[in-house]
Every structure is written in C-alpha cells, then in structure tokens.
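cron nightly-structures :: item 1 of 1
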Amino acid sequence: MKLSYLNIHPLLKKYGIRPKKSLGQNFLTEPAGLNKVIEAAQLDAEDEVLEIGAGLGSLTCLLAQLARKVIAVEIDRVMLKPLEEALASFSNVQIIEGDILSLPPDQLVKSQNYVVVANIPYYISSAIIRHLMEAQNRPRRVVLTVQKEVAERVLARDGKMSLLSLSVQVFGEVSIAGVIPAGSFLPAPEVDSAVLKIELYPEPLVPMNQQDTFFKLAHAGFSQKRKTLRNSLAGGLGISGSEIEKLLSDTGIDPQRRAETLSILDWNRLTQTWLARPV
C-alpha cells in the first residue's frame, strides 16, 4: 500500500507554531524515520491504535491509513487545531487532549488487542512505559521512539540490568527495530533515537498479586546501586543488614552481589522468600 505523507511545514507557518522545549517536542518528519516506526508496529486493517503525542499528525496520518481506528492523545492544546486540520480527511481518528500519565489506557481503548505507537519526550520515557505495562487492558505491542541510550538501557541484560530494563522485561520481549538519526526530527535533538519494540507476554513474568512486592524490593535494591545488595536493600527497606543477609542467603543469592547483576528470575525468587518470611 502506498502511503501519503503529511507536510507539516505549512501548518507550522499558518499557526505560528514553535516546538516547545519544555514539552520535549521534536516532530518526526522524515519519511524514512516514519517508515521505521510504521514497520515496527505491524498493523493490519482491523487494528486499533493508541498514539501518544500526536503533535501535528505526521505519524497519525500514516497510522490512520493502515488501522481501523486511531486514538491520538496530545497534551499541548496549541496543537489541537492544526492537528484537526491535518487529519480532517480521516473519519477513523479520535483526538484526545490530555496527559497520558493521567489517562488510564483502559478508558481510552476498548479493544483487547490494541497497539501503542508513540514518539515520546525523552524525560518521561520511563514513566510512560511503566504506565502502559501496568494498565488493566494492556496492549499487545508497544512501539516507542525514544532516545537511543534509553532503548539500549531497556534491552540491558547479563549483569547490566537497571530498574528500567527490569520494569519492561517483566512484561514483554524487547527489541530495537531501527535507529533514527537526529536530523529526522524538527527541531533535531542532540542525540539519535531508536524505535523500541515491546511484544507483551500474554501474562507478565511476575504474577499481578506479587508485582507490588517485586518492585518494592527492586526499587530498594537499585536505590543505591553502587552498594552491595545487603546494604542497598537494608537501606531501601529500612531493616537491618543481618535480616537482609538471611533473606538473601535463604534465596541462594550472595549478599555481596549488586542489584544490576540479578536476573528477573533472581528477583522473583527473592520476592517469594520475602512473602514467605515470618512477620
């Protein structure tokens, strides 16, 4: 299918729009970069798409040509009128003004098998990913344009885990579907971006009723990541080092290890031991 691309420059001029640094606005305009996002989304004609950060509609108009319905969320009120103009020819797009972090995805999307596509500000990447992963009605696939370094952190394994990578990999299989040069955006950011693709598991690797405990322990462990687990967990959880040492030993984890060296399986085992301890 041959796609029609939107030229946002007339809209910028007509409405006197200047991208806001405070909102992390960098509009993806180059067809090659847009194509990488679209290809990663793997949409079909029956799909419902939740787009976060519609901007002036460069990506929205491509999504609308491929999917049954697009729910486009935009936080900047100034963008709404030009966005409506850009998408006037599409009857399958619903524009919603608001902050995605304040909008439960369950209330936005009714379909059970939807896809999320977004070009999001770098400074809220982690928060948006976690918000989507923990939704009651989770998407089947999430495709995000994020800072390349952030994407690489999400993929980290083998002794280089972070709280971010742990938080995402619990919910889905992660890959980088492509790199988008900084010059593909308007204005160009200081660094290149990557297309981060998350294929969500049918069920998270951590049971829903144990996730609060799992992430409580992980937050504590990563709170002072230069310290050993014995010290970081003791400080983060507010209990004695000897108690933590016993907890870790009972789990079969060396108290001298650091949080970044633990796998999801290790954190899962630690969660089980914590929940089974005498209170």
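cron nightly-structures :: done
The first strand starts at residue 27 and ends at 28.
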